[in-house]
Structure formats: C-alpha cells, structure tokens
Design a protein that fits this description.
Elements (H helix, E strand, L loop, with lengths): L16 H6 L3 E5 L5 H13 L16 H11 L3 E7 L4 E7 L5 E10 L1 H7 L15 E5 L6 H13 L15 E8 L4 E13 L4 H7 L12 H7 L17 E3 L14 E8 L3 E10 L7 E4 L6 H53 L4 H31 L20
C-alpha cells in the first residue's frame, strides 16, 4: 500500500471584509501635463501602496478633482496622492478625503524603481511581497510643531496600523522608511524588501539550506564542503552582521533556517522608488480652504482676517445661491404638475365635445335630404324656362315627396 502524502494546510489568516474596509485605501493620480518620468514615478508609487490602492487606474484629462472626491466615498478611499508639474519643479500633494487637510511637497529629487533595481547586484523582487501592505518606519519626526504633527499623522494614517499582539511576521515583507532631516528640512523616502537569514552558521551550511543545492560532485564527503568551505570557497562567512540587526524570532518565519527562538539577521534590499520631499504648504481642505502653513508666504493678522471674511462671504453667497436654486427647482416642479393637470382636464373636455349625439345627427340628415330634393326641383324647372322660353306645365317637375319616409 502506498504511503499517504501529507498536505500542508493553509496557515496564513485571510482578512475579512470588515477588516479590509477599516484599513486606509488610496488613489495615486496626476493632474495636468506631466512628463513621462513623473508618470513612471506615479506607477512606482502605486506599487508601493499595494494592495489597498487602484493599481490599474486610468485617468482621463477630462476628469476633475471633484470626480475623484465623489467616487472616493462609495469605494472607501481615504487618501489621495496627486502629482503635478510646473516649469519650476514637480510636486506631490497628499490629501485626506473628503475634508482634508492637504499637504503639498516639493519633489526635489527622485529615482525610479527600474533605476534602483539596475544598480543592485542581487535585486530581490519576487512580486509576492506586494500582496501585503508595507511596514511604516518614521525617523526624525519629533519636533512639536503644527506642520510636524500634521505630517506625522498623515503618514501614519496612510498605511494600515499594526497590532503587536496579533501581527504575523510572515506578512511583513516590505517597509517604507521616511527620514526627516532637520537641517535641510527634507524627507527621504525609501522602500525596502525585508528578508530574514539565520546567523551563526558557515557559508557552506548556508548554501546547503538554500533552495538550490550546490554542486558537490568534486568532493568525497559532505564534511569537506562544510568544514573546508568546498567548491573553491576559502571564507566561511559572508561578513559579520551588525549587532542591532540580529533578533530572536518570536515566530516561525518563511525561509530555511528561520526557526522560532533562534537568532536571525534582518536584511533589507531596496526596491525603489526614491524621493526627497520638502513641505511647502498645508491647506485645510482638499486643495482648497484656509492655508495653515506656507514655507515662503507669510501673512499678517490683518491679511488673514480679511481672507477669512472674504471666504465667509463667498461661502454664504454659495449657500444662498444653492438655496435659491432649490426653491426654483421646487417652483418649476409645482408649475409642471399644475400644467399637467390642466392638460388632462382639457383633453377630457375635448373628448366630451367630440362624442356624437344620435338624435341631432338624424335631424341634420333629414334637413339635408329635403334641401337636396328642393334644389333638384328648382333646377329642373329653371332649365325648362331657359330652354323652352315658357313656364312648365303645373305638376310636370314636381316630385312625389310622399315616397320619402322619415321618422323623426
């Protein structure tokens, strides 16, 4: 009897619909005319925001900002990332839908994913790591100012939060690092792949536990490979790992040698893209509203008060016009209903007037027949007078009307 094969049961947890609805969702788009490199940067950023983003979203030039804000509610989208480009620079706007705020960053430098991958000796991009959201790491966001607080809150809410008690290490395969430089007032954006590797073993053993078994055809015994670093390798180690990169695994992690309660080294491989951002402006709404912060423009208290009063007047005027428009719509609907009722009543009256009456029709037919008979008599007598030149004999052209029987 053949030996039964043991099947591996599914161990990873599947997120429910309620959990998916609670996590942040984003849209990454561009507005206006942008270059090809910015479009590629947009696609790379969509890749970073997976899986809770619209990766294959197609944006039409006819679409306006309100279109995306209106569809965001039914789709559960919480954040909008928008690239714009001018003659001076490229900008990235990050907004919270639907009420704001909106943070405008100047993209001082950027590098695409394909450029980062081409510069690496051993790139690590299998594609499976994009099935889980990345881990957010913030560094240097410690200043107690309004712009810093808003930036920290915006970035933290941009990615799903992690429950330390329930998190599975097998689901954390990527990380997004945001480093704030207090001297240059810039933010460095990096995107890494996370991989764990066992430590404390020689290079030969590492080769053995890998998926691809090394070629040992030239060796007499496996001990030659392990203890002598066979196949021409003289070094038993690929280099000492930093002490802070070594951790004791609290769970089993995918990968050979990554066992619970054993030490492993955390290795990061950059995936791209890279960006260097600088905060320029913070607006209260979605690209509109009161300016809470501006890097270059400073206004006095009087100017701020005037702007608030103008904005309030504009808001009141808009509400008044909206109310007036609603009243006009209701009035037109009432007039339409009245006109419809009048039209129906007129049609009913017309139908009553066009309904035939039998008695009246019979009387009209009798009168018509008699008049036709009299006309015929007059015509015959008149013809005789004209042709003969004298009066016809009495009774010659008189028809016997007694044969015409009419019952009225």
């Amino acid at each position: 009897m053949g030996k039964s094969r043991k099947r591996k049961r599914r161990t990873h947890s599947v997120a429910t619909e309620e959990e998916v609805e609670k996590v942040p969702h984003s849209l990454v788009i561009h507005r206006g005319h942008v270059g090809k490199s910015v479009v590629n940067l947009e696609f790379d950023l969509r890749r970073v925001m997976e899986p809770y983003t619209a990766t294959n979203l197609k944006v039409s030039p006819k679409n306006i900002l309100k279109d995306f804000v209106h569809i965001a509610g039914p789709l559960g989208v919480t954040h909008l990332l928008m690239f714009t480009q001018t003659e001076m620079a490229t900008y990235l706007k990050v907004g919270r839908i639907p009420r704001g705020p909106t943070l405008t960053f100047k993209v001082k430098q950027y590098c695409l994913t394909k450029d980062v991958m081409s510069a690496l000796k051993k790139p690590k991009s299998s594609g499976t790591q994009y099935k889980n959201p990345p881990l957010l790491v913030l560094n240097g966001f410690s200043a107690n100012t309004l712009p810093m607080k808003l930036m920290t809150t915006m970035f933290q809410n941009l990615f799903p939060s992690i429950n330390i008690q329930k998190v599975h290490l097998s689901g954390i395969k990527r990380c997004v690092l945001l480093n704030y430089d207090s001297e240059s007032k810039t933010i460095d954006f990096r995107h890494y792949n996370i991989r764990s590797a066992p430590v404390g073993i020689s290079r030969g053993v590492k080769k053995l536990i890998q998926t691809k078994v090394p070629n040992m055809s030239q060796l007499d015994d496996i001990s030659d490979y392990v203890f002598r670093g066979g196949c021409g390798y003289g070094s038993e180690s690929e280099g000492e790992e930093p002490g802070d990169s070594r951790i004791t695994l609290p769970q089993d992690v995918p990968g050979r040698g990554n066992i619970k309660a054993q030490q492993s080294a955390i290795r990061l491989t950059e995936l791209g893209p890279r960006m260097r951002l600088k905060l320029i402006k913070i607006e209260e709404g979605i690209c509109t509203g009161e300016v809470l912060f501006h890097k270059y423009v400073k206004k006095t208290a009087k100017e701020i008060k005037e702007m608030k009063s103008k904005r309030e007047e504009k808001r009141k005027l808009k509400e008044m016009r909206k109310k007036q428009q609603e009243e006009n719509v209701k009035r037109k609907e009432r007039e339409k209903a009245i006109n419809k009722a009048r039209s129906i009543e007129g049609q009913r009256k017309k139908q009553k007037m066009e309904t035939p009456d039998d008695s009246n029709d019979t009387k009209d037919e009798v009168a018509t027949g008699l008049s036709e008979v009299n006309d015929d008599d007059d015509d015959d007598a008149g013809w005789y007078r004209r042709e003969v030149g004298k009066e016809p004999d009495p009774g010659k052209y008189q028809h016997n009307n007694s044969n015409l029987l009419f019952q009225v």
